[in-house]
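One-letter codes give the sequence; each number marks local geometry. A record appears below:


***
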Amino acid sequence: MGNKKKVTFDDIAKYTHFSKTTISRYFNHPDSLTLENQQIISDALEKLNYQENKVARILANGKTEFIGVIIPDLYHHFFSEVLNRILSTYETFGYKFLVFIGNEHEDTERQYIQELLSYQIEGMIIMSHTIPSLELSALPIPIVAIEREDQHISSINTDNYMGGYQAAALLAGHDCDVLIHINSPMDVHIPAYGRIQGFTDFCKEQSLEPLLYLRDFGRAYDSDLPLLSEIIEELDLTYAGRRKGIFISNDTLANTFLNLLFRKYGCLPKDYYLVGFDNSPISRESVLSISTIGQQIDQLAYEAVQLLVEQMNERKKRRPAPLKEPVHKVIPPVMFRRETTEKSE
């Protein structure tokens, strides 16, 4: 069979009786045409079986339909799951993604950003905490953050304060004698700080003294393991026989903590009640399913891409109206009661 002739702008113009300039405007600035004319050209493309030359379009208007993504790591299951959900939005929004892993190296992340800009990305989603939002806001593209400091850029976050409060309430509801929170030390401007604040506020309201273990948990299992082992040893020594309600900052650490208890006791001891945060897949796949304060990860990812696409589309208009202030959307968490708290009393 011979090769089919490629449909050109000339062919579309002749079919619709529009000029080639009008056809070009349809592809590059569709809002400059009436809805009626847009529909006429769209119908013609379908009837002519037009297959767009993506490379030619990029060269013509500089729009690549690429979004850059920078995540801190793939060790924490939350980040890998958010990335998975972001990538799945291609079918809805039609944007492709270029992904870099920051690993908390500031200079490296700046190099990644310059690399992304050289690919003419139209926008960026960032979860890494390394570069301040003020610096990011100066970049020539729209940016949306997820669960990071966001004073100067738009963001989608979980209501972390509510999540910490819910975790403390769940553990208190099981008559735990001591309420414990395990987390990393962090700046108050990071959204996840709300987990610490919500937990401690609940305890204070109930006249309970919260016990905080703030340690420099890293980005690897090998570095986190000894820190959690030390905490377990201290809890066993100080609170032997007392019912311990433990809220851990994320499901990845909660799973490691649970595994350590199984190594030591062969089970989850009756005096340990455990709650994680995220509702990432590991919370359901662990040796015992972990009760967790669930971030609505699918909604976080979808809302982030949607907010970014709205800003990118606005820039393509002849008279764009950019945001005067960053947009901050907050999504409520959902509690999941599982085996690490819902056990026989």
The first strand starts at residue 66 and ends at 71. The chain has a mean pLDDT of 91. The CA atoms of residues 172 and 245 lie 7 Å apart.
